[in-house]
Amino acid sequence: MNTNEGLMPVGRAADLIRAGKYLSIGGDEQALRQLPAGNWIGGTIPYFMANDGGKISRDQVFVHEIKGFSAPPIMRLYDADGLPQLCRNAPENGFTILIIPAFSECHGSFAENAPNYEDMYMKPVVGWISGIHLDDLGKVSPKVVLGTTGEFSEQHAVAMDVPLPPNKFARVDIINLFRPGTGDTITFAETGFSVGACQINGKQANLADYLIGNSTDTRLPLVADYCGAMINVSIKGIDANARRVDFYAPVFPGLDYKIAAPVNDYLGSFQAALPKIDSGISFSCNCILNFLYSGLEGKRTANVTGPMTFGEIGYQLLNQTLVYLTIEG
Amino acid sequence: MKSEDLLRSVIEVEAPWQVVKVRDDLGKRQVDVWIAQQTGRSGWFFGSKATVPQDREQVWRHINLGNSRCLIHAVPPPKAAGEAPLWCGDGDLPFTRAMSRQIASMLLEGIKFQSICSILDVTVADLWKFKHSLDSGKAGLSSAPPPPPAAAAPSTRVPEADDPVWEKLLDGSTNIDIRVLSLKLLLTKLREQMRVITDAEVRVLKAYELQRYFVRYEQMLNHELGQLGR
Q: Closest chain A residue to B129 measured between Cα atoms?
């Protein structure tokens, strides 16, 4: 284990920043505000998977050190209008770490439009959606930080573009324990975070009515098969009066969704799903919903650590999924 | 050749259409050209009675005239009138058909969006609108020139861009086991686009897009390339 990575006291992270290291940092806002300016980007979150298990901490921060670059990484903020330039600005060979504040315009815009960004899927993008302690909902807002200036923003996304030498390449992958269940097929006519109308097995229906009528466990996401990649859309809530279902990521037309089959043993299933990674993981994050629904506080998910976030980015916005980056070659 | 004839020839304006007005003072390095149908008089240029009805006029960006942007103002001919002229745009597209063909050729060559914007002096917004119309099947490139032969490196295992394997992958008639996340996501997106794209040339554009991905990540795609029959 690299001692420059993992959950650590603010003072230790500050030392790494002062040593000129390039870092991606997750932490509670008050902890991040204690860090000096330097070569880092950050996002607010107090939930982590540490070496010794899942933790909630307001005074420690999780640090990923960025290494092996061929030229100094470039850090910048993006507003919602500039975000479509994300991949175009990324290095020809390398990767981008992106952090977006939850509930911001960038969050919605990225979720709906990222698949159509120029060069999307051609250049690796990994990252997460920053959040807050659930006790603070409605009191404070999720933020990102551009460490070079110390600027905090609840509306901008922050990115670090990391160029790699020609003999190396970045690879983004996911571990999603959810699989489509054996139930009905759900399709949507339009992209959206909120949905009423849908089709169930080809017949017009209302999703809220359907989920309530079937007493569906809404901790289970909708799952769509993207040519073998299982992509979740997590259910945020059901408004029975408005007959509307809200999601943590948008649903898209043209895809067949199913309610996921339950995962009874998250840790055991996770261990079984984790591939052998010789090169080591350079970055990873997991979802706060997995943390909460699977009761991961105090429990270890193998050696895969990182912030437990309000959404994961593996090229596009993901839910209830572990995302990791490896450098190969 | 008179300058009027030269302009008509360059823009490829043919009867019954005529250039009825030209201005070069509406924007920096910009030429605005109004085109309308003849109204029976023999005059072809400026002196004609033909005008462009302003309430139905559309403006499209045409191929540059030297270093100047060229904007065509005209009322689109009715669809029943046969194939539209190259100086005319389709639907709400920001470009004339000639300009669309030029941009499509550049996309086929793998030229970056920003480079296209820079070379042709078009806005990113217009280029995105154009590409979105193609990707969503709302516009086509019918009668576009055939794509140039792909210049694949001799040692590559990646089939050339015009190999039928790409269309089969895109329409789902060929399925392979994919281990790379970005390819899974890309192929899902392209298949969804192919589902609504009927224009043959835009489908070719999508095949080139997929082939470019394989060329770029060839070293990571041994498992997938091994299933493509090469």
A: A116
